[in-house]
């Protein structure tokens, strides 16, 4: 059994302002992802300017925050927020859903692409997808520091006694998610996207990879206390991941069939016809 390091969730203080590790790591992940995407954009078969990457990351950050909050409210604690509607705005109190954040990012990329005719919607998703695990991985480290989202009771040699989890040792599921959703998924997507791929394939691989990793980790992660198991032995995280596991391969198959490319060619031809 390992001992939880009991790190202070408050990173440091600037006068009256307290900087928490969660927020600090999210900022760091945003900076790292932006720098990596700028470098990647120069090598992309569809080049991205530095200013375009920064604009895209701004859209994505807003989409992830708003989508993550709305998803948490709807899927994880709706009765509470119906009774306390103003608390929906209290983002600093915690409560974010990855699946909601993902939908927010997709919407943000769509809005971004509408104003950038040189960058279509699906290629934009393919471009941003390999950078998402950077934020996921550091976010799970922040969960570990905050003593939250720990695993179920276990007597494995690396199990830990989390202060908020009672006296029994538990699986460090945050570390599992950091390694799978963060490190491994990043490596898979970064390597796969080095070469030009069919439109939609990189995004489809992200959807499938995250869905599988999250579904597996949920078997050892403690279910949300306000929900418990929602469908037999399945948690809400698993229920929300099942569509991703199904949809991901469908997207990849359709991408390699050339379906998305044909749709974009038809859209481009329609725009050119309107311009004439």
From TrEMBL:
Its EC number is 2.5.1.145. Keywords: Cell membrane, Membrane, Transferase, Transmembrane, Transmembrane helix. One of its GO terms (cellular component) is plasma membrane. GO terms for biological process: lipoprotein biosynthetic process. InterPro entries: Lgt. Belongs to the Lgt family. HAMAP family: Lgt. This is Phosphatidylglycerol--prolipoprotein diacylglyceryl transferase.
């Amino acid at each position: 059994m390992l001992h939880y390091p009991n790190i202070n969730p408050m990173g440091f203080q600037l006068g009256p302002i307290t900087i928490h590790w969660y927020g600090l790591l999210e900022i760091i992940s945003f900076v790292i992802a932006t720098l990596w995407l700028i470098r990647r954009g120069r090598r992309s078969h569809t080049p991205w300017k530095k200013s375009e990457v920064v604009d895209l990351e701004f859209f994505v950050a807003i989409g992830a925050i708003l989508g993550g909050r709305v998803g948490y409210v709807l899927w994880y604690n709706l009765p509470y927020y119906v009774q306390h509607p103003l608390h929906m705005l209290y983002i600093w109190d915690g409560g974010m859903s990855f699946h909601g954040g993902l939908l927010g990012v997709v919407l943000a990329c769509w809005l971004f692409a509408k104003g950038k005719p040189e960058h279509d919607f699906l290629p934009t998703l393919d471009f941003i997808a390999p950078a998402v695990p950077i934020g996921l991985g550091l976010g799970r480290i922040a969960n570990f520091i905050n003593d939250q989202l720990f695993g179920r009771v276990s007597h494995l040699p690396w199990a830990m006694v989390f202060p908020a989890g009672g006296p029994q040792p538990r699986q460090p599921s945050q570390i599992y998610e950091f390694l799978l959703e963060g490190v491994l998924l990043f490596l898979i997507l970064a390597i796969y996207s080095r070469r030009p791929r069919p439109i939609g394939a990189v995004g489809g691989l992200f959807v499938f990879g995250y869905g599988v990793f999250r579904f597996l980790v949920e078997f050892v992660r403690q279910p949300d206390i306000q929900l418990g198991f929602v469908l037999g032995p399945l948690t809400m995280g698993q229920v929300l991941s099942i569509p991703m596991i199904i949809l991901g391969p469908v997207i990849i198959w359709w991408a390699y069939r050339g379906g998305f490319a044909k749709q974009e060619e038809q859209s481009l031809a329609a725009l050119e016809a309107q311009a004439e």
